[in-house]
Structures
1.
Amino acid sequence: MSLTGIGEIANLASNIANKFFPDKSQEEKDALALQIQQMTLASQERIAQMDVNKAEAANVSIFVAGWRPFIGWVCGSAFAWTFILAPMVTYGAALAGHPLSLPALDLSQLSPVLMGMLGLGAMRTVEKVNGIKAGH
């Protein structure tokens, strides 16, 4: 048997052994490489979105550059009404002897929009990628 044949048999045996007993350090390297790849893709997406945001903000048309401020004002107004104005109006009316019940705004669909605009969703994604538990 030639040395080439022995080398091939050794490689085959090594490949079979690695399938049943994988090298932990290689698994760790692969997991780290995957994490780096995911973080790189996420960073590229954020950079591309920032470029779009800059282009929109620089546009002279209010329909292009003004939609983010509009959504921000709508979200801010809804939160101001829900947490500041409505309670103050209700309290003031009760003090004046005219109790009233104001309708409550459903913020369950508005909150994700506002959190996304504030970038709080992306911060949690980075925490998840880095393995940080919520609330820590």
Note: The chain has a mean pLDDT of 80.
2.
Amino acid sequence: MAKTNPDNDVIFDPEESLRFEGNTGPYLLYTYARAMSILNRAGELSEQPLPLYSSSEELELAKALATYPEKVESAAAGYNPSLVASQVYEIARAFSQWYASSNILGESQVDLRNARLHLVAATVAALKNGLTLLGIDALEKM
């Protein structure tokens, strides 16, 4: 329901709200848990990430993350949480597309693996923050 602009009527569909695909809470929670799983398996991150964007999916995720703070500010200024919900969904969607096309933990180039892990960490931070703003407890496992 948070994805609905406050100026619009809300039509609640319980079946839709529980789906694991599309702009739903379970989809966002699943994406967060999947990203956390990657970080947990990776162990410690190095201190110096390198911005190596090797695919259009990777660049799209980086752009979605970069515009997140602006969307939060706009949402607060306009009392419109749907802007946060939409941007969090965009981050989750971009992450899922990138994850499906990338080898993160198995990457043999250390610098590229490190950069990708930092991108996962940034995704986790943005998703957790967005879920918190929407009043949803982030789950590390599903």
Note: The two ends are 21 Å apart (CA to CA).
